[in-house]
Each structure stands twice: as structure tokens, then as C-alpha cells.
Amino acid sequence: MIEGPAPGTTRWRLDIAYDGTDFSGWAAQPDRRTVQGELEHRIGQVLRLSAPATLTVAGRTDAGVHARGQVAHVDLLDEAPVDTLRRRLQRVLPADLVVRDVRPAPAGFDARFAARWRRYVYRLVDEAGFADPLLRGHVARIRGTLDPDALTAAGRELLGLRDFAAFCRPREGATTIRTLLDCTARRRPGDGTVEITVRADAFCHSMVRSLVGALATVATGRRDLAWLRTVRDATSRQSSIQVMPAHGLTLEEVGYPPDDELAARAAAARAVRVLTPTTPTTEPPTDGDCCGD
Fold first, then answer.
1. Cα distances (Å, whole numbers) of residue 205 to 152, 208, 231, 237, 284
2. CB of 207 within 8 A of CB of 293?
3. What percent helix, strand, coil does the chain show, rounded to 5?
4. What is the pLDDT of residues 77-131, one digit of tens each?
């Protein structure tokens, strides 16, 4: 059954960006500053709602993780003055949180379950790069010199549909089966920052930062591909993998299917997946257990 807006309400899509430095992640928590908590409070404030707004997000980012292309939806009463919501939020939101766009969501849209993929970029500076002090809150330092080509080659060992239990912090009742669609690295001209791009149908808790830690270990020559394959095939979290700092990670983009495929995608995404010998290695449904890092 597809969960849509209740009668008398309209679903709105919000495109959001934030600097995660001073947030305790996306998800609302008592007595902590979070992106969800800040937005739900401010939306209720500017629209003068009788009850708090409730946001559903595409990727639940951890404390310190940034976002440039976060997506969420909210269902609001039809009479709510939403046409001016973005402009009014600009006046009250703090400088580290921006709602870039607010628009009616098409039928079947669900920010979490209708998403086909999430794209993150992790930024590193090694001994061959230039540590720009203006980017210190968004780029993590690493010892040694990274070989972006070696990292991309190592990333190919992890592509496809597989159980990423070795790279995830386990959560009761949550699957760690994901499809990693892309994993590439490049050295940015100018300052030499190494950007690692990963794209998957969804990510488990701490999965991106663990993937980067493992791949960086190989790309600096401290480990070889045989170690990576052993780790990859493990069925439980591996303590030998370094989890990289949160501040180097940014959610850059969330991808959705065409409007006429949104409802079908959301329906399929609610099915919990298992690995079988006949499971396809193309893009399978997203289970949605945990979509951020």
C-alpha cells in the first residue's frame, strides 16, 4: 500500500542544503540541534501550524555530515499558505541551513522510498595536496599520498548488489544489502583535493565513511586488493576498517525516476531484500532502512 498525503492535505517537496558542522545529524533528538528539528520548528512557526510539521527525508545524515542536495517532503493542509514558505524560511533559518526550493510533489512522490539512488562525495587532502584552511570543515586529512586511479580500481571490487555488513554499523531488523552503482576518485586541479564519489540505491549507517576508509588504505599502499576482497566478503562489521571523519562527507544529490514511475518505485522500495543466486545485479528496490551515513 502506498502512503500518500491524507485527504485535505498536499505533499510538498523541499530541496535542502546545510553545513553539518554544528548539527547533531538530520534526525530530531531531544535537547540536540538537528536539521530535522530546526526545519520542523521553523515551518510550524512561519505557517502558524497547530501541530508540528513532520518531514520525511531521502538520506538521514549523521552528525557533522553536510548536504548540498538533500530532499525531504512534508504534508500540509491545503489551506496552509505554502506559496511563500521558501521566502519566509529564508528570513528565519540560520546561515548554515538553506531551503533551496519548495514545490508541490507529483503523485506518488516519497522523498525516502521513491529515490533511486543517493550520491555522496568524500573529500580528502593527502600529502600531495594543499590543505586550504577555508575548507577545513569539509575536507579530511589523511597521511601518505593517495593514488586516485588505484582507488577507483579498488572501488570496482565493491560494485554491484551485495551484503555490505563489513562496512556498516548493524541495526536490529535492518538489512545491509545494498547496490553500489559507482565508486570513483579524482584529484581536483588547483588544491589537489581528492574527491571520492560513491552512488548507491541507499547506504547503511556509516557505510560511506567505512568504504572510503578501506579504499584509502588500499590507495595509499598500506593494504592490497586481497585484503579488500577478504573484508568485502565478510558477513559482519570489520574492525580493521577505518571509519573516516564525518566532516569530509557531503550528500550531493538524490535521484528519482520519472513522475509516472514514482509510485511503483516507492511500492517496490518497501520490500526487504535478500541475496539469492538469481538476484539481479542491476538497480534493485531500495528497502529504505537507513538512507544516510
1. 22, 8, 17, 11, 19
2. yes
3. 25, 25, 50
4. 998 888 899 999 999 999 999 999 999 999 999 999 999 999 999 999 999 888 8
**DSSP secondary structure of 190-209:** TT--EEEEEEES---TTHHH
Cβ(181)–Cβ(256) under 8 Å? no
Total-model pTM: 0.92
Q: Which domains are delineated in the chain?
A: 9-104 (3.30.70.580), 117-264 (3.30.70.660)
Cell triple for residue 271?
A: 520490500
Active site residue 62: yes
Annotated active-site residue in 15, 19, 31, 62: 62
CB 202 within 8 A of CB 287: yes
Cβ atoms of residues 252 and 118 within 8 Å: no
Angle at 238 between CA 115 and CA 289, to 5 degrees: 25
Res. 190: pLDDT tops 90: no
C-alpha cell at 251: 550528500
The span from the CA of 140 to the CA of 76, in Å, is 39
CA atoms lying within 13 Å on the CB side of residue 41: 12
